[in-house]
Amino acid sequence: LVSVLSSAIIVYRLPWTWKCSKLLMKFIHAGLNTIAMILAIVSMVAVFEFHNARNIPNMYSLHSWIGLAAVIFYSLQLVLGFAVFLLPFAPVTLRATLMPIHVYSGLTIFATVIATALMGITEKLIFSLKNPAYSASPPEATFVNCLGLLLVIYGALILWMASRPHWKRPPEENIKILCPTGGTPEGTEAESTMADSSNADKSDLRINSEAARKQNLKLDEAGQRSTM
Residue ranges per domain, the chain? Predict the structure, then answer.
């Protein structure tokens, strides 16, 4: 979840992906989230089987509670994301309304995953290090503590990239025409066609204006030559 989910979060924020189509980036975003969800389910099944084989109680620690909550909310986020943003059935107004909630929920789940990982490695150290104990700061404890610090730094970097406006994917020209006051980058095929027509009309106007300006310059030059 830490690595694949973070990749899904910033896939729209990488400048070298801006030249790719929005639909392609949507499929990549959905695919990465699906992979992360599958890996999360596999890992949870492995944990429960390990606990049952060793007669270890299940779901008693805060790490397990928050981890299970993160997986549940992540599955809901994935299902709603597929239904609203990937499939072409949801209206544009609904997508525009849910987009801020979708983004905020994704970032919150990612922060929860980082917190779950930190609690999990701390719990593992406390249970595993007996001689010397965790409190004696053996090399294993120092190594895992450094790993926890790197997780915090990595999570902060991902959240920073996801929240900075200059890292946001630039809107297409048709989005600027359809949503002049700011809106969702989602739209129907008909709206895209209308926007393309508007762009073509604007391009024609610019070409005509440029031709007229050049014609006026020629006339001015001719007038100047005639008076010299």
Answer: 1-172
Residue 158: exposure state from Cβ atoms within 10 A (0-12, 13-18, ≥19): buried
| CA 93/CA 187 separation, integer angstroms | 10
* 177 band by pLDDT with thresholds 50, 70 and 90: very low
**Residue 81 in this model has a pLDDT that exceeds 80:** yes
SS3 letters for the chain? CHHHHHHHHHCCCCHHHCCCCHHHHHHHHHHHHHHHHHHHHHHHHHHHHHHHHCCCCCCCCHHHHHHHHHHHHHHHHHHHHHHHHHCCCCCHHHHHHHHHHHHHHHHHHHHHHHHHHHHHHHHHHHHHCECCEHHHCCHHHHHHHHHHHHHHHHHHHHHHHHHCHHHCCCCCHHHHHHCCCCCCCCCCHHHHHHHHHHHHHHHHHHHHHHHHHHHHHHHHHHHHHHHC
Which listed CATH number (1.20.120.1770, 3.40.50.300, 3.40.50.720, 2.30.110.10) goes with 1-172?
1.20.120.1770
CB 109 within 8 A of CB 5: yes
Give the sign of the dihedral formed by CA 157, CA 162, CA 165, CA 166: positive
More confident residue, 168 or 158: 158
Predicted TM-score of the model (pTM): 0.72
